[in-house]
Amino acid sequence: MTIRVLPDTRVVKIGGQSIVDRGASALLPILDEIAAAREHCDILICAGGGTRARSIYSLATDLRLPTGILAALGARVAIQNARIITTLLASRGGVFVEPEQFQDLPAFFRSGCIPVMGGMPPYGYWEMRDPDSRVPPHRTDAGTFLTAEYLGSERAIFIKDEDGLFTDDPKRDPLAAHIPTISASTLAEMDIADVVIERALLDYLPRAVWCRELQIVNGLRRGEVTKALGLERNGSFITAEG
Amino acid sequence: MAPDGRIHIDSSLKAESLQRRDVLKTTDGTDRSILPDARLVYIAGCVFDAGAKSLMRYVDWILDHPDPAIIAVGGGERAAHVAMIAKDCGVPTGGIAQVVASCEEMNATVLAALLADRGVPLARDHIWDVPFLLRCGMLPIILAVPPYSLWEPPVNGGLPEHGSLFGVERLAEAFGIGGVIPCHADGCGGCE
Predict the structure, then answer these.
(1) What's the whole-number average pLDDT of chain A?
(2) Could you state, in order of their start, the residue ranges of all structural domains in chain B?
(3) Strand pairing category for A165-166 and A178-179
(4) What is the CA radius of gyration of chain B?
């Protein structure tokens, strides 16, 4: 059994297209909730990408650039959003961290800081390629989950703009049904057209030692982020066990 | 601001879910080769483990070869050792990957000393120096293991799945390098 490096850390992703691309009206209230919750728990923020990532992936596709280069490009977008979030939280302890600075996390938490990082894992040019796509399979959802697993957090929290997991994208299909809890294996077997989380996590979650749950909450509803950071069971959960 | 409350950039992937298989499929296709003429020589860790004679044989071969090459180095028995100690202590998979990479840095430093007038140890984020260095006849020396580090995917607390050979293959694919030349010590059965 592996040790838990910083087990009480809440690892939380702020969505790119779902939250940051909406601007102040969506982002600022979420940051207020996070800053308030920081009073009773350690929080590490991972920033998503969003429309600029889609834009550069589209250009890179037209240019036939390899997946590794798309991964390096996508990482920059998430870092841009992390820089914005860090700036907005600076007066309340926001501090930008690079992957190489993980050894400093205990000091940041001890001093009441809220570390913020780009959500992409640092795979860059070494990213794997899926068979039918040049879009990097490990993006900011994967980075957030892998961060939580390394730190020994029991859940990774994803702040998006829907009430969790549905049988299809509720923006396209109003009849899509909400799924409060489902195992990764069951979700993979359903093979639904669209899922709220990167598909790579459905493979990884059952193999995780500590991070055995993915929680998806709607950051556009006031109080949902606070509940999640308080370890309440709002939103949807994807679990390691069936 | 679009009617959906978001600020978009117009593109073929605008407002799309990147989880949808039909959307992802639109990005498929053959890749452009970035460095089609480059060679990638992988010096496996066993070459370093076998000692000076084993290593100098490859150093002389590299220096005698007229074509420029990227040199990737493995970690060998020191990497295996630190992985074993870390695992025994309960260090998570990602933490093991981190210290394994550090062993490759040691071998890269040794090789840089032996190739001093042409070898250039290369930090990962300096990868775009490679075309310039090759044009100058220099030999960029990089770590073979991928930089997954703390973000190595979980394997139920086991050792990292993505080793040096995997890293070399990924780098070759990312840059469209056709020729990967693996170098092992005599008697090695094909280690990572």
Answers:
(1) 96
(2) 40-183
(3) antiparallel
(4) 20
Residues 105-164 of B with CB under 8 A from A: 124, 127, 146-157
Residue B189 has pLDDT above 80, yes or no: no
How far CA B4 is from CA of A19, A81, A217, B15, B177, in Å, comes to: 12, 20, 19, 10, 43
Q: Is the dihedral of CA B27, B28, B29, B35 positive or negative?
A: positive
Interface test with A, best of B18, B26, B34 (most A CBs within 10 A): B18
In angstroms, rounded to a whole number, what is the distance separating the alpha carbons of residues B46 and B191? Answer: 7
Out of A26, A121, A209, the one facing B151 most closely (by C-beta) is A121
Q: Find out whether B20 and A194 touch, Cβ atoms under 8 Å.
A: yes
Asked if B68 reaches chain A (Cβ–Cβ under 8 Å), the answer is no
Q: How many alpha carbons lie under 13 Å from residue A199 in its C-beta half-sphere? A: 19
Measured between beta carbons, the chain A residues lying within 8 angstroms of B157 are 1-2, 209
Q: Partners of A179 in the beta sheet?
A: A165
pLDDT digits 0-9 by tens, A133-192? 999 999 999 999 999 999 999 999 999 999 999 988 788 888 989 999 999 999 999 988
**Helix A67-89 with A24-37: angle, nearest 10 deg:** 70
Q: How far apart are CA A144 and CA A190, in angstroms?
A: 24
Q: List % helix, strand, coil for chain A (3-state, nearest 5).
A: 45, 20, 40
Cα dist. A115→A17, A74, A95, A101, A102 in Å? 21, 20, 5, 10, 10
User: One-letter amino acid identity for B36?
Assistant: P
Please name the amino acid found at residue B128: W
**A51 by DSSP, 3-state: which?**
helix
Answer whether B52's CB lies under 8 Å from A92's CB.
no
The superfamily (CATH) of domain B40-183 is Acetylglutamate kinase-like (3.40.1160.10)
Residue A226 is which amino acid?
A: T
**By mean pLDDT, which of A72-76, A92-96, A181-185, A188-192 is the weakest?**
A188-192
| Interface with chain A: mutation pick from B4, B8, B11, B152, highest number of A CBs within 10 Å | B11
- For chain A, which domains are there? 9-239 (3.40.1160.10)
Give the pTM: 0.96
DSSP category for residue B174: H
Model confidence over B17-64: pLDDT tens digits? 899 999 999 999 999 999 998 999 999 999 999 999 999 999 999 999
